[in-house]
Amino acid sequence: MPDKLSTHHLEAAATWFVDLQGIKPNNPLHQHHQQWLQQDPLNKKAWARVEKLRHTLSDTPSSMSHTNLIKANSSRRHAIKALSVLLITGTSGVIWQQQDALPDLLAQYRTGTGENLSITLNDGSQLDINTRSAVDIHYTDTLREIRLYRGEIQLTSAKDPLHRPLIVSTPQGKIQALGTQFLVQTDEALSHVTVIQHAVNVRPNTADNLVKRIEAGQKISFSSVNIGTTERLIPNVNAWTQGLLIVSNWRLADFIDELSRYHTGRLTYADSVADLHISGAFNLQNIPDILDNLSATLAIDVRYFSPYWIRVSNKNKG
Q1: CA 120, CA 126: separation in Å to the nearest integer?
Q2: pTM attached to this predicted model
Q3: CA torsion 82→85→87→89, rounded to 10°?
């Protein structure tokens, strides 16, 4: 039996890693994975390389390039291919040129479109993870850190007997909890913080001397170099933790943009309907039902070009 890892072993390990993401502990796939590990010592060796790569990436600085190895909505096949390349070539070269998507791919917790997770952390804090998100939990003897690579979370902090600071890190900077409940959303350029209870401190990555305290009822956006103006939070901004989108007098354009985060595929609208207004509470589990119900109350047409491509237009103008 050969004692050197082959491409076959590494690709198999990459496949197992991708398939195990996000499944429940009692899923039979975990048992099948253990059986695979026992079948061949080289399977264990390949899996050890996956774990080593994951550990390396968890300690990678968050100052990243904007070249994508994989897109946020990558398919299973593309995710496996991307991870296989890294396992075969090692962490030099590609990893440093394509850092932005790698922690996302290897994150402990990842949600797909329309999915969310609720996790109780080992200190008692509650972490809610919204659609299309990727998160790592990194607790040490001196620090509690949550690394948000993509998407949105709500964190309700618990008192820590060890008095360790609780930090949320994003590509743009760090948010320190001050006994609080707050939301953090990040995209390519900005992080957005909304404080529900108590307060947080916000610190951009490349501006060590710039710190701003955000109080309950406030929201703010910041980049890696600057912090924006404090604004009032939007009511019911965390309704997604209950599977709902609750809006009051929203522009239809803003409403559809928000809905599109939970829809697999394209959800677009015509300019002629952008400035219509809408209020209500909507169940995010079925986007087509929401749109069909809206068409009964607003002067809009909902057109399905495919199950994945929906367009909202004016009944008269198209």
Answers
A1: 5
A2: 0.71
A3: -150
Confidence tier at 70 by pLDDT (50, 70, 90): very low
Q: 252: how many CB neighbours lie within 10 A of its CB?
A: 19
Maximum CA extent, the chain: 71
Partnered with residue 184 across adjacent β-strands are 153, 193
Domains with residue ranges and CATH for the chain: 7-106 (no CATH), 110-232 (2.60.120.1440), 243-314 (3.55.50.30)
Residues whose CB is less than 8 angstroms from the CB of residue 54 and which lie 6 or more positions away in sequence, other chains included? 106
pLDDT tens profile 217-247: 999 999 999 999 999 999 999 999 999 999 9
CA separation for the pair 99, 55 (Å, rounded): 14
Tokens of 227: 């912090």
Q: Are 313 and 276 in contact (CB under 8 A)?
A: no
Report whether 133 contacts 111 (CB < 8 A): yes
Over the range 150-188, which residues count as b (16 or more CB within 10 Å of their CB) and which as e? bbbbbbbbbeeeeeeebbbbbbbbbbbbbebbbbbbbee
C-beta separation of 155 from 181 below 8 A: yes
